[in-house]
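Quick check before the chapter quiz. The format below is the same one you will see on the exam, so make sure you can read both the input and the output lines.
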Amino acid sequence: MSISQLARSISQSPTLKLNETAAMLRDKGEPVIHLGGGEPKSKAPINAIINSAALLNSGDVKYTPADGIPALKKAIVRYTEEYYNKLVAADQIMASNGAKQALMTLLYAILNPKDEVVFPAPYWVSYGEMVKLAGGVPVPVAPSDGSFRPTMEDITEVVGSYTKAIIINSPSNPTGVLYSAGFIAEVVAYCEKKKLYLIMDDIYNRLVFDGKTAPNCYEYAKDDTASSRLVVIQGVSKMYAMTGFRIGWAIGNKNLIEAMTNIQSHQSSGPATPSQWAAVGALTGVQSSVESMRLTLENHRNVMVERLRAIPGLQVTKPDGTFYCFPDFRAYEKDSAKLAGFLLEKVRVVAVPGKEFGLDGHLRLSFCGTIKEITEGIERIQWALDPNSANELYLGERKLVRDWL
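Here is the expected output.
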């Protein structure tokens, strides 16, 4: 079969591949614990379900405008005013089939061949592949001090004549690190000065712990003209536990949004109508589900960090938000793919290799499952790695005896 050079250059999403692997093992009756997932266990808000069900019961499910139904755009306007203290117009918004499509369409709209997109490492696994799909060149930048927090100097060192955009994801997938207000202010000012697009991937910005809040990029933006290059990407998947509804959106200047809408109209048309009405229900309904999930995740984070820090030699940076932890396993194995394969084979724990996020020797572990999954999963990891742990471990009714240390 002949496929394009572009298709050959794009790798499969490792997180989705792991989901498939875990599902296959579970179908075979294997006692798999999935610590690699990226979706909350919470249910979608009741207002989302009611709205979607009402439309389905009517039977009147038709095409919508390519950039989203007016009711959804109105809800996004209200949401942005409430949580960003920013009043935007409907023609500055495009709703998509998830935040991922909003970002992908944005990259199609702004990139020419060889244009570069800069983003801090570790990074979400799809950033680089999406930039390549749009004809651009991904430029990850690792913090010079070895931390998960880049400085402005780290960013400016890699910016060149081909740089078109900078992507900031805060709090970050996979580390859970929240970038400081000072750093966000610097990035906003720098992009305005250099006339670069600043893409704020804010998909986790309400899932922040320890009384902290995610800095609001609009507070530092001085360019409020029609040519502003600040773009905010958001969606309902994470904060409302609505991953399967696939609704996200982009907010930018109206000329950019018009170009993105033209592209999306040929890609997929408007998002699914029942999903859009579900998003309206989530955004305009009672918001207690978000805070409830945030508190649950904060408790899960505390349990995971405490258990991980009990494993000798493991280095753990406490996440400020999201539902991910990114511990350093290099004391045991520097090849994260090899380590992830070992844990899956020996103790049936699914984790995502750090090399997929641009930093080998680490694993991304998710704490959006249950407390039982977190504690048992880490117990299995410790048993597999620590020679001082018990010699036997039970996976359900199956007894394992260590034979590899």
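If your answer matched, good. The first strand starts at residue 33 and ends at 34.
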